[in-house]
Amino acid sequence: MKRTRAEYEADDYINHRTMFITHEHGRASSLYYVTNHWVIRCSGHTGGGRVATTFIRRRAIRYLSSTGHQSHYPMLGYAPVEGEHTGHAITRILEAHYNTVNIPDEWVAQSGVTWVDAVAEIDAAVAYAQRSQVLRASREVNSRNDFNPD
Questions:
Q1: Residue 37 domain-assigned (yes or no)
Q2: Nearest residue to 54 (alpha-carbon basis) of 111, 77, 17, 150
Q3: Counting CB atoms within 10 angstroms of each CB, which of 30, 43, 49, 86 has the fewest?
Q4: Cα 10 from Cα 99, distance rounded (Å)
């Protein structure tokens, strides 16, 4: 069941601003950008019926270890959990000043999205989220179309 805007705005989020990469063997990486209220994810994997997609979600995020320990701070090896989505383990927590020139060693573009594409997607998603204040939206990576509320 979808939540109303008032329900989202009433949430007292405890998200900590961060940016990180997740990865699972045999798949492409995902790039996450988290603010107090937003979780923005460029899921870089294409294949097996999946298309690389960038998601904008206004919701809380938590992190879960393989042994079930929960945290509100991102940690290497922990999986991000946002709503019904559980991501792959965090392989790198990035500095606040990322750029397209210095590609992190942990970024894997296998069957997926380049580092430059992922950064451009995050930047576009942040701009859209700030402009529209939509609760949820997504688009296919590199589509160059605007995001669609979902």
A1: yes
A2: 150
A3: 49
A4: 34
Helix and strand counts by DSSP (H, E) for the chain: 2, 11
In a domain, 35, yes or no: yes
Residue 60 one-letter amino acid: A
Residue 150 placed within a domain: no
| pLDDT, mean of residues 57-84 | 94
The Cα 25–Cα 35 span in angstroms is 27
pTM greater than 0.85 (yes/no): yes
* Cα–Cα distance for residue pair 49/57, rounded to 1 Å: 23
Nearest 5°: phi and psi at 88? -80, 170
Beta bridge partners of 64: 70, 79
Q: Which has the closest alpha carbon to 22: 97, 71, 84, 81?
A: 81
Mean pLDDT, the chain, integer: 87
Q: How many separate domains does the chain show?
A: 1
What is the span of the domain harbouring residue 137?
5-144
Q: Is residue 149 part of a domain?
A: no
Instruction: Say which amino acid occupies 72.
Output: H
d(CA 91, CA 28): 12
